[in-house]
Design goal:
heterodimer, A: 7 helices, 0% strand, B: two-stranded antiparallel ribbon
Chain lengths: 214, 489
Amino acid sequence: MPAALDILSILLILANLCLLGSSRLATCIRAVALQAVILGAAALIANRGELDARVIVIAVASTLIKAGALPWLLRRAIRESGAVREVEPFIGFTASLLWGVGLLGACLLIGARLSPHAAQGSGLLLTVALFTTATGLMVIVSRRKAVTQVLGYLAMENGIYAFGMAFAIQEPLLVEMGVLLDVFVAVFVMGIAINNISREFDHIDTDRLTALKD
Amino acid sequence: MLWLLLLIPTAAGFAAMGLRNPAALRRTLLPAAAAAHTALTAMCWAVRPEPVLNGWLGLDELSLLVLSITSGLFLAAAIYATGYLRREPPRKTDFQDGGLFTDAPEARFVACLLLFLATMTLVTLSRHLGLLWVGVEATTLASAPLIYFHRHHRSLEATWKYLLICSVGIALALQGNFFLAVAAKGSREVHLTVEHLQAHAGQLDPVWLKAAFLFLLVGYGTKMGLAPMHTWLPDAHSEAPSVVSALLSGALLNCAFLGILRVHALMGAAGLGEFSGQLLTGFGLLSMAVAAVFIIEQADYKRLLAYSSVEHMGILALGAGVGGLAGMGAMLHMVNHSLAKGMLFLLAGNILAVYRTKTALQVRGLLQTLPVTGPLWVAGFLAIAGSPPFGLFVSELVILKGALQQGQTAVAIGYLLLLGVAFAAMARIVLRMAYGSPAGIAVDPERSRGAWAVVPPMALGAAVLALGLCLPEWLQSALTEAAAAAGVR
């Protein structure tokens, strides 16, 4: 079923473009949650040959955490801070989309060179994994709101996870779970920090955090 | 034994979280757990414990060295923190903008300190690079609440920058780990354990391996504070309570360095040591240069110390990159820097408590007002700047000698020049604080915290002095073996 994997990859591209082009924070959270669901499904499909307990546990746990618990934490953070949408990002939404298309092109070029190394039938997934990581990085540097930056970080993590899948890298269960736990705690701690920022400053615009400098 | 090293601080951390009252018990728990950890670490020097968990947790010479530094410094910091927590009033006025602020709950602070120790221990013990990554990211998460102990807007800003910059940096290191796994794909099964990778280094795909090294260097380099990824470091170090700054600078940065050294050793085994060595040297020189620029005209003495850490991390990277004798020098320098910087940050905490300002220009006459902290501050400065008879003089000299032996004259000249600039710039600021008359500032002797506040930095200072006076045979061979384990031969 490489076709199914390709379809999931295309859905992942759309989720990335949605993340880049949307100003509503709730939509962005949904896009990142969608990424996690797609990746969970892709993990099951890519390993359908040897569907052992390890694969299932990792896929289910990461979907539950990244598409369930983390979006819930972030929604709570935006509710408490009252931020609804990203306002005036450093790179506008249309420009972000254009950048996104450019990045996708670049990732296609890189992916084409790397795909001989990738696992069977995962060529497109590899490209999309790189694109997802790049999207995450771009969201982190081009947005003002703290919540959006956390979403960028999550998108980056999703991209790296997808990269591992494209190369069929099987890390031991303990390590996978450790990584997942770290991501969960990271977003948890960031969520608390965001709540504190909104209480202390009445906004969550990170570009206005400029008291510390040389 | 290795399990105990991890379990003691973890269990104590959770216990401290649960022990809301009484405070006295919690304050005994912190130094007690630290002392137990240090005692166990000392036992590891006598009897090397067997690896556990399929060989994923183990101690080699390098990790034992980093673990010992971490554990020893943590003990000093724990004793200091006990005195600090006793005297810290619950509500305080922000001396920079006059606002009122409170501290985070003390139980959480103590718990995070202990968990911070546990995560750093995990980093040192990890023989599996995936587990190492998990540990490094966990150190960020355990230490972020520590930076936000004083609940005011500046520390919050520093915490946010620390969390985000380090998490993104470490995410890049995760990508690097995956590159490493791809590089190892040729040899069927992927085992990211140090031993396995070393044994099969020849079969690794060199292109993927180089990419992996780059990503891991940038990722862990962010955490280590190598320029230009160091931007979180001065903010976090200046806004955190001084005892936390001491741990960040003296223990955490070394742990990140350990992550880089693991891959550097692998590069060496795969015959790509020159590539990684040159990169390390380059980043090292750049860090020294950037730090020197920011040390000149630095108004805030805690930021000054933070930039000095960037400088010394640059020296470590340079030493490891040059290799040979300089590699052993870098190991010695790591020990010396942690002792001296830990001492200076703890003293900075004492100065801050009395003068209630972080502006160096407003601190005058330290030698008069603080008869113990003042002289120690000057001694600490002399130590960190690398003057004899302190240990940093020896290690900086060894690195210089190593660079000359390897024929890297240009590197040696740049290194000397940057050391000189940093020395002069620091001297101007620090010595000015020590001399002069303290007039104009309401000095409040009640604020001095007695023996708790001066014995730990004094002990650290004595250790760095002792290392400068004589380097025992056993330590010398341990350092050489650590350098060999780090692949810098």
